[in-house]
Structure formats: structure tokens, C-alpha cells
Amino acid sequence: PLLQPRGLELDPVKRAHTLSDLRAAAGKRVPKAVFDYVEGGADDEISLRRNRSAFDRVEFSPQVLVGGDIDTGTTILGEPAELPLVLAPTGYTRMMHHAGEPAVAQAAAEAGIPYALSTMGTTAPEDLHGDNLWFQLYVWRDRGFTKDMVGRARDAGFRALVLTVDTPVPGNRVRDIRNGLTLPPRLSLSTLLDGATKPRWWWNLLTTEPLRFASFDGDGSLAPSDIGAKMFDRDVTWTDLAWLREVWDGPLVIKGIQSVRDAKKAAEVAADAVVLSNHGGRQLDRGPAPLELVQPVADEVGDRLEVFVDGGIRTGGDIAAAVGLGAKACLIGRPYLYGLMTGGERGVTKVISILREELERTMRLVGANAITDLDRSRVRLRA
Ligand code: FNR
């Protein structure tokens, strides 16, 4: 036919072939301050860029003439998962799209993968439903309140607790400061001007549930860094892990480990897993790229706990590489938010299905039929 149907497709979710297509579509749908909040990193964004460029070092060693079926299934924290993938906790998800966390949880449940609700989420643990939900915890100065939050997550059926340890104070997110971002967003001349081109986003924001934190009462409209600086306990130490073990008896994940040294400490306190992570480059700038820590950490503690990794994962090939180097699973943050911003739950589902197809294709091309075939005989990091 003369007219190519693909060229006529107006639905940005259907049009997207890659996560970068969804990223571009997302940028057109939400106000700049919101997109920058998702996209930005701390300080000079060196970690943010390195997280991504570390994947340029990946080199596969394919095994040919393997044949057979591809199975991406695995287990994560002892539960079956259809992919070695977890949707990471992200704050203020209703700001990206009015459907918020319930849409993300639904997409994750349908795809058979876990999703972690953030302490800074905009849906209460009681209101979120899914098969395999985790709760991400920031320890509050008020320990009674912290314990309460953990109890609410347990009572609501959350399976795992994820303690984030890379945020004793909020990182210096320069884009948010320049944009004057507050949570919830405040009307200003610039948000009004930008919002005039995104009427649907504003309409949804103003007509659906109020944008407030689900786990605590916010204090009016504040800059994100002020919220963290006010509430987070910067004096949390390894000795507090014993306390946390008393109030939470399910699987415990420590997120934000950035060295072999601390991964060993996590194993000593009997954590069930660590997430090698620099918070997507949003906290300390110029820490190591998490991908480069996978192999040394897996070698040191991989027999005692599960090693997860996040930061810069944007393709199924990236997942194959991280798993091959020794990760049990990968987390993604920004990528599913691109999908959410573009098309709500459908967009998140699209992100997961793109990653699934890319992972399957990569497995086929490197000659790995099962996730357990992805090992260091198939992937290495070039010097
Ligand atoms: C985050 N991240 C995060 N982590 C966490 O433990 N608690 C939180 O509330 C948040 N909030 C948050 C908001 C936004 C907008 C982003 C982008 C990230 C970090 C997140 O869980 C994850 O570590 C990174 O997003 C991983 O990097 P990529 O996949 O975004 O490159």
C-alpha cells in the first residue's frame, strides 16, 4: 500500500519501539518541571551519565547454534517472577500521571514482576493491590511513626521491605531548584505558561485525588529537598538494622549499596538482598556506576544474599548484561515513569513488554535459553 499504517499511528504508546521513544513522548506530555524532576540527577549529573555509559563497556560472547525455547522466568526473593526485573520505588508518582501508583502496580502484577511503593508515594499502602508488592522505607526521625509505617505495609500484605540507605540528606538536584519545583506543585507564572501547552495534565491533576503523600501528612508545598531534610533521620546506622529486623519479619532489602565493603556489612546483618544503586544519580554525584559493582559484589557476597542493581537500565540487553555479570534482578525507575507519563498503565505495560522482547531477543542471540545460562561465559565488561 502507498500509505504506511505505521506512519499514521498517532497513539504514542503504540508508536514506541524503544524506551527512548517513550521518553521523548513523555517530555511532550508533562510540564517541564515535572519531566526534569524525573529526569534529573544531583549536582553535575556525572553519576547520571556514567550509570548509562557503563553499559557501553558490555561485551557479549555469543554461543551459536543453540536452538530451543527462551524462558525469561526466574525467582526474586524466593518468589517466581516472569522477568529478572523490579519496578523501583519513586516518589510522587501521581504527579507524573493522575493514575499514579495503582496503575504501576497493576502493570507490574500483570507482567508478573514485583513493584516497590515508595515512602514518598502518593497512594497509601492500604490502597495498593498487587501480587508481589514491596515497601520502600525512609527512616523517619520519629521512630514510632517509622514503626507504624512498617506495620501498615505488613498489614496491607507487602512482601518485602526495602530500606534506602543512600539518602541521609537529599541530593542537590539543581534542575528542581532552578525550576522552583515544590511538592505538591504550586502555581507560578512559569508553571502556568508551561501548563497552557499541557492542559490535559493540569486538568487531571486538579480534578483527581489530591496530590499528597500517602504515608504522612505533608507540610504544605515544599521543595523536595526540604521535605527530606526535615523528616529523614540522618543518624540511621548499621545498629538500627537489628531494630528493623524486630519490627519486620519478612525479606529485607538494603537499597543504595555502593561498595563491596558495605555489601559485606549487609550480608553480616543478614539482609536478604542488596540493591547496588546510586539512586539513579540523584544523591552523591561521582560514586561508582552500579553496573561496575555487580561482579565484585556478587563474587564477595553472592552466596549469602541476592544482588540487585539499578541505574541506567534502558534495554533488555542491559538486563541480560547485568544478570550475566551476577545480578539476580534489575530495577528500573525512570523508564516506567516515561511509560506512565505517556499513557498511564498502558504505557507502563508497554515499557515492560519492550524490555521483555529485547531481553528475549538478546538471549536468543547470545545463545542463552534460560536466565541461568546468562553468566560470565556470555558477558564481560571491557577494560
Ligand atoms: C527515585 N528513586 C527513589 N528511590 C527510593 O528509594 N525512594 C524514592 O522515593 C525514590 N524516588 C525517586 C523518584 C524519581 C522520580 C526517580 C527517577 C527515582 C530512585 C529509584 O528507586 C531508582 O534507584 C533509580 O530510578 C534507578 O535509576 P534509573 O532506572 O532511573 O536510571
UniProtKB/TrEMBL annotation:
Top EC class, one word: oxidoreductase
Binding site for FMN: 89-91, 118, 136, 164, 255, 277, 310-314, 333-334
Domain FMN hydroxy acid dehydrogenase: 11-383
An example Gene Ontology molecular-function term: L-lactate dehydrogenase (cytochrome) activity
SUPFAM superfamilies assigned to the protein according to its UniProt record, in alphabetical order: FMN-linked oxidoreductases (SSF51395)
Active site, per annotation: 279
Keyword terms: Flavoprotein, FMN, Oxidoreductase
Cofactor(s) needed for function: FMN
E.C. designation(s): 1.1.2.3
Binding residues for glyoxylate: 37, 138, 173, 279, 282
Family: Belongs to the FMN-dependent alpha-hydroxy acid dehydrogenase family.
Name this polypeptide is given: L-lactate dehydrogenase (Cytochrome)
Organism the protein comes from: Kutzneria kofuensis
Organismal lineage: Bacteria, Bacillati, Actinomycetota, Actinomycetes, Pseudonocardiales
